[in-house]
Every structure is written in C-alpha cells, then in structure tokens.
Amino acid sequence: MTKAEAQQIQANANMQLSVKNTIKQWFYRDYYFQRWRGYLENFPE
Q: pTM of the full predicted structure?
C-alpha cells in the first residue's frame, strides 16, 4: 500500500466518524428538545 492510499483510507474513516457524530448530535438534540417540550406542556399552571 502506498502512502497516498493509506492517507485516503484514513480520510474516509475520518469522514465516516464525523458523519456518525453529526447524526448522533442531531438525534440527541431532537430527543432532548422533545422531552423539554413535553415537560413544559405537562407543567401544572
């Protein structure tokens, strides 16, 4: 394997990791936002 090939594989791995992290962040943000809204709606006046 040449150095360029190794760098390409590393770049692909980094990109996949970054995509996974972005999806995870969106998932958690959406999840907490929904819980927060539910909490506000159920909060007794």
A: 0.56
